[in-house]
Design a protein that fits this description.
The complex is a heterodimer.
Chain A lengths: L2 E10 L2 E11 L4 E6 L5 H8 L7 E6 L2 E2 L5 H7 L1 E4 L11 H8 L6 H14 L1 H5 L10 H13 L5 E5 L7 H16 L3 E6 L2 H7 L2 E6 L2 E7 H6 L1 H6 L4
Parallel strand pairs in A: 3-8, 3-9, 6-7, 7-8
Antiparallel strand pairs in A: 1-2, 1-4, 4-5, 9-10
Chain B lengths: L1 H32 L6 H18 L4 H24 L6 H23 L13 E3 L5 E3 H23 L1 H11 L1 H5 L5 H23 L10 H15 L4 H21 L2 H18 L12
The chains are: A alpha/beta, B mainly alpha.
């Protein structure tokens, strides 16, 4: 397993945001976490990248415990997080945003190559290279957020609601990008409200309900599950 | 008349130089750490006293004294970050109150070490760059102007062209997203605090021979700096520089042609007008930095 989350609980004050969540991400796969509003999807992802302290459980990445590390140290292990709402640096240019994603890297030549790679994957970003990030459309900002994450050369990409607030055409484009990135060998954890999209992309899925893991299994299986169909796919 | 205008213009450029050094440091600290450093005027004062101690009392060469003063005040900034702002990082108001406490400590230390009387500092140079018979720029003032141009250009280069500069701006815009890029917020806070404090320190050190050095000299400087950063737009470095220049010109001209008290009133009135017309300041946006 690339990443293993075992029995994680996170509390906000006295409220348990998530309880006893265990998630395994195999190398090279896409794992999705679906569920309704407030089910604990984002919390689970934030626990993985060290953005919130966990109350119990442990998280292993490539066999090493990372649950005690602050967020900026976890990046160095090879986990990149594309946060909910994109959170790009609005007052910085597109290129500055991307280079900031490579903040920890010392392999300068490889950084230039990867920057070229991101521009190749997202031609819109090359066109807007010197433009302030704020001036771009939502879809372009999402691409920038993904590009920025890729610049850290991660082994695992955590994506929080990449489809949020985007037009269906753009969502399709983003989905394609996720597939391509994964095909190049990068493992992905995808948190999505759009369960249909998520189950289509993912190999394995977890369903969270009010902070608990209600169900898990191969994505194709969950797509056929009565409860999932009724509650999340609207079928 | 033309000569008087030219001379007043030169005086204003000098005033703009040290005001912008102080104001930019204040904006940088606020941007990256989210705290208002009320002790910033006292950091300016500490830089001036470094020159009193080293240059006037111990006869260290002036520029060596200035360099040591700048580094010393930068270290004071690091001390503030470690002792005050880091423990209070989830409590910006607490940070502000703690910085007021630090201001009083620095003032008291200056009184204990040097007394309350104004310090006399022997002039560094009496030379004047003459443009015409009546228009001239004292070289001591020229030093301040050159320092402002050099240090602010260097800061601009650092912020726009270097990896740590981007890290600083990223931390100012979105600390959480910055951490997700591997940036240590503690480290960027330390860098911002060192640079911000050192800029106030060098401004104080270079102006020491030109002004009356006393333990309370930081007061008028911080008031001016606050006016400038509010007018420029809180969080905008460019705004702080441009507003420093604008304020210095207005203040110097009103002082020269009318009087100093009126100049203060005009300065504050301009701030109020800007706040009414554009509450985010001339160059501010709703987002920080």
């Amino acid at each position: 397993m690339l990443l293993e989350m075992k029995g994680i609980a996170v509390n906000y004050g006295k409220i348990n945001a998530i309880r006893n969540i265990s998630i395994a991400v195999p190398e090279g796969k896409i794992v999705t976490i679906i569920g309704g509003n407030g089910a604990g999807k984002t919390t689970t992802l934030r626990a993985m990248s060290g953005m919130i302290p966990i109350a119990s459980g442990e998280i292993l990445f490539e066999g090493k415990r990372i649950d005690h590390l602050p967020a900026h140290k976890i990046v160095a292990h090879g986990i990149a997080h594309v946060p909910e709402g994109r959170r790009i640096f609005k007052e910085m240019t597109v290129e500055e945003n991307l280079r900031t994603g490579a903040f920890l890297r010392r392999d300068k030549d490889a950084v230039e190559e990867d920057l070229e790679g991101v521009f190749k994957r997202f031609p819109r970003l090359r066109e807007r290279r010197t433009q302030r990030a704020q001036t771009m459309s939502g879809g372009e900002q999402q691409m920038l957020a993904i590009g920025r994450a890729l610049m850290s050369k991660p082994r695992l990409l955590l994506m929080d609601e990449p489809s949020m607030g985007l037009a269906p055409v753009i969502v399709e484009e983003i989905a394609q990008i996720v597939e391509e990135i994964n095909a190049n060998g990068l493992s992905v954890v995808l948190v999505e409200q759009n369960a249909e999209l998520a189950l289509e992309l993912a190999n394995h899925a977890y369903v969270l309900e009010t902070g608990n893991c209600a169900m898990e299994g191969p994505a194709s299986e969950l797509r056929g599950n009565e409860h999932v169909r009724a509650a999340y796919l609207g079928l | 008349m033309v000569e008087l205008l030219a001379q007043t213009g030169l005086n204003a450029v000098y005033a703009a130089s040290y005001i912008s050094l102080v104001a930019v440091g204040l904006v940088l600290i606020f941007g990256v750490m989210g705290v208002v450093n009320f002790a910033h005027g006292e950091l300016f004062m500490a830089g001036a006293y470094a020159v009193v101690a080293l240059y006037a009392d111990m006869h260290v060469p002036f520029f060596v004294a200035v360099a040591i003063g700048m580094a010393f005040v930068g270290l004071l900034g690091l001390l503030m970050e470690w002792a005050l702002f880091r423990p209070l990082k989830d409590n910006p108001l607490g940070g502000l109150v703690a910085s007021i406490g630090f201001l009083m400590i620095l003032q008291s230390l200056a009184v204990m070490g040097f007394g309350v009387r104004m310090e006399h500092i022997p002039p560094v140079t009496q030379e004047v760059v003459r443009f015409t018979e009546k228009v001239g720029l004292p070289v001591a003032r020229l030093y301040v102007i050159v320092a402002a141009v050099v240090f602010l250009s260097a800061l601009w280069y650092f912020l726009k062209r270097t990896r740590f500069g981007w890290a600083l701006r990223a931390s100012a815009q979105d600390p959480e997203a910055a951490a997700l890029q591997g940036i240590s917020i503690t480290q960027t806070a330390r860098i911002a605090m060192f640079i911000g404090a050192a800029l106030a320190g060098v401004a104080g050190a270079l102006t020491a021979p030109l002004v009356s050095v006393n333990p309370h000299m930081g007061h008028s400087v911080i008031v001016t700096a606050f006016i400038v950063i509010i007018v420029g737009g809180v969080g905008s470095l460019e705004g702080a520089i441009l507003a420093s220049i604008a304020y210095a010109f207005v203040h110097t001209f009103v002082t020269t042609f009318w009087d100093g008290v009126l100049a203060d009133i005009v300065g504050l009135s301009l701030m109020l007008i800007v706040l009414i017309v554009k509450p985010t300041g001339l160059f501010g946006s709703a987002d920080r930095a």
